[in-house]
Amino acid sequence: MKKILTQSLMAVFMASILGVYAVSPVYAAASMYVSPSSKTINVGDTLSVAVRVNSGTVQINAVQANLAYSADKLEFLAIDLSGTAFEQQYQNQGGSGVVKLARATTSPVSGDNLVAIVRFKAKAAGTATFSFTSGSSIVRSSDNKEETTTKAGGTYTIKSPGGDDGGGGDAGGDSSADTSKSTTGSSGTTSSTGPSSASSGSTRTAKKDTAAPKISGIRVSGIELEKATISWLTNEKATSVVEYGNVKKLGFIKFDTKLKTSHKISLPANILAPGTRIYYKVRSKDAAGNIASSKLTSFKTKGYAVKLRITNLNGEPLEGATITLVPGFEKGVADKNGIVVFTDVASGKHSVNIEVDGQVLSSTITVEEPKKPDQIQDFDVKVAAATADGDDLLGINPIILYSLIGVFVAVLVAWLSRNFILARRLAREESFGGEDLGSVDQPPTQDIVSPPTQAPPQAPPVQQTGEPKPLMPRNEPKMDVVRREEGSEQQ
Fold this sequence. Notes:
By secondary structure, the chain is mostly beta strands. The protein is built from 2 helices and 28 strands. The strands form 6 sheets. Strands 2, 4, 6, 7, 9, 10, 11 and 13 form an 8-stranded mixed sheet that branches. Strands 16, 17, 18, 19, 20 and 21 form a 6-stranded antiparallel sheet that branches. The longest helix has 38 residues, at 398-435.
């Protein structure tokens, strides 16, 4: 009994251990794969391969799928984004043996989701592959880091129609064939039989649908600050896809996979912005996989109203001035009061370019998001330049200004001329003083000492006892002076 009890306890203990390990959660790595992973098709058939991701319970918000295909066996046709779970497009490339898809979503997803469908045309018999290459990954939304991912590609057998293989093989991709055969009996009636009756009658294959839907009646309605709806019609039931973005390269997508002839897609508010130009095109795919696409066009969301009053520095209106707001490049012409009104303007800073009398002037305004969207925001813009009627915006008449400039130039010329003449005269006087001295007995005038302004009191003449020393001419040898007798008059 004791042995049985001991064995029972051991069994319970082992079971508990095994139970612990059995209930411990096992997190499988996320996967990237293509579907179908294998298929047999004929040369000339279309092969459609879905690129998918499965993250299990992990929320993801982006995927990068880099794939390579056998370019000698498959011809790249297109990338179909109908039904993708990732509406934002960053890379959408195919050809020369390479396919690259980079997509994201603003609403994280989990589980199994479609990235895109890649379409090929089988161009040569043999075995073709379509497999993931380095750089392929999916990103967790919780921390924006790459999730551990396994990858699985596909292998496809391509046969030559009518060859040794009997020209058989499954119809690939979007192609579909009716393999039923019609046999005409002796009674003249036509009946549908199985393959065994092929030898007793003629064979007819249903014509494949290769015509794309025809798109018409494209229009944008319900345009608001952050809303817009795009609608169109097709001549047959098809899916609804809108690619759109703030630039011509687009980058966003919204779709409806239901087949219908009347299509309507409302663009999400978290992408649109007030007063913004949105570029878009629509696509529809019928049940046979034929795709029709419209031309790229655009519309502008509703924005804010702005009133500008353009004046000179004296407050006088500039009638007829052409105003351009940048970056929206909205244009307007000022009325007689210098006023121009713009609607559907985006918020933020705008450059105001003013063209008047052949001159382009610039200022800056800041458009805010008002509490009432229909509120008009007023701005006074003053500029300084000459207008077309000759009045200067600084308040100075051009004729007066030019006259003042002329007087200044005349005074400057006169002053320079006077200084030039004086300089010439001084040069001539210096030249004369050094060369033309006159008689030796007459000292140069410039060397005679001028008497003082007030003559000193006269004293009795004093007879000179020594030899007088007359002033000597410049650069001349010393002259001899003859002394005369007393009382004689000195020469």
